[in-house]
Amino acid sequence: MLQSFIQNIFNALQWGSFYSLIALGYCLVYGVLLLINFAHGDIFMVGAYIAFYVCMLFLGKFGIIPGMPGWLVLALAVPLTMMLTAVVGVTLERVAYRPLRRKGVNRLYVVITALMCGLILEHANLALLGASRRSFPTLIPTTVYNIAGVNITNVKLGVILVAVLAFFFLRFVVVKTKIGMAMRAISYDRFAVPLMGIPADSVIVFTFVLGSGFAGLAGLLFAVTYPVLDPYMGALIGWKAFIAAVVGGIGSIRGAFAGGFLLGFVEIMVVAFFPSTLRDLIAFTILLLILSVKPTGLFGVARRTKI
């Protein structure tokens, strides 16, 4: 019984790592712009497809460059996938969000635009690449470590470690750097920041670079762990990551990180003790109860609007 419980904890940590990396992107954009970027889940999907084609290129499948070892392909694919996915996120900000922001439109229209951008990404993928699923290549052999009857793979440990390192890196950027200070200043008063000589548009672009880069990293890790890609893979996991960010406290980095792991833990434990068909029902009921007790989330703080 104890071994099974510990095994489920590691499974929950792995599953929660995906939610946390995506939730961090929601948190960044909302914290700076008070915008819920509902296209973020589909940016995660785009990141997984970018990782697929990058890895196929470095493996020599397209005949452009000679094939490389799997570990080297993975090492090169991580930064390249994050950069290319960040380009997608910045393009969305430049084309879809910035014109609306400069016109000062109601925030509801920006949210609707974000939903539309997500649908565009899904159906553009479907139109360009077809409905056939892609099988992600195996880059590193899976090694299973048996510790006191608990099976842990090298991939699972790697996913958890990368998620934790990404969280500490983001905390460092936001708390210890000048660009992070500018991000916090914009979240406090977006209209006063340009008067202080801070280029607000550049800071917002950097925010989308960070958020979309983490989504691309999550897409790569998810594809390595569950090597089947389809155009709609980001829809459900994106919504769940958003819910995790809300439960943790939307706008709080540690809240988004903790909310992702909380959702992963609840889902895995529900499947361990109940039929899998009840997973979403029980998991979201528990999260709803948490929000009913603490509406701002676990680490969220109520915002006050000056009149």
From TrEMBL:
Topology class, membrane: Multi-pass membrane protein
Q: List membrane-spanning regions.
A: 12-36, 43-65, 71-96, 108-132, 152-174, 203-226, 232-250, 257-275, 281-302
Q: Name one GO cellular component term.
A: plasma membrane
User: Where is it located?
Assistant: Cell membrane
Give the molecular function GO annotations: L-isoleucine transmembrane transporter activity; L-leucine transmembrane transporter activity; L-phenylalanine transmembrane transporter activity; L-valine transmembrane transporter activity
Family annotation (InterPro entries)? ABC_transp_permease (IPR001851), BCAA_transport_permease (IPR052157)
Q: Which Gene Ontology biological process is one annotated for this entry?
A: D-alanine transmembrane transport
**UniProt xrefs under CDD domains:** TM_PBP1_LivH_like (cd06582)
**Alphabetical keyword list:** Amino-acid transport, Cell inner membrane, Cell membrane, Membrane, Transmembrane, Transmembrane helix, Transport
Q: Which Pfam families match?
A: BPD_transp_2 (PF02653)
- For this UniProt entry, what is the primary localization, expressed as one broad class? membrane
Q: Give the protein family.
A: Belongs to the binding-protein-dependent transport system permease family. LivHM subfamily.
Protein name in UniProt: Branched-chain amino acid ABC transporter permease
What organism is this sequence from? Answer: Desulfolutivibrio sulfodismutans
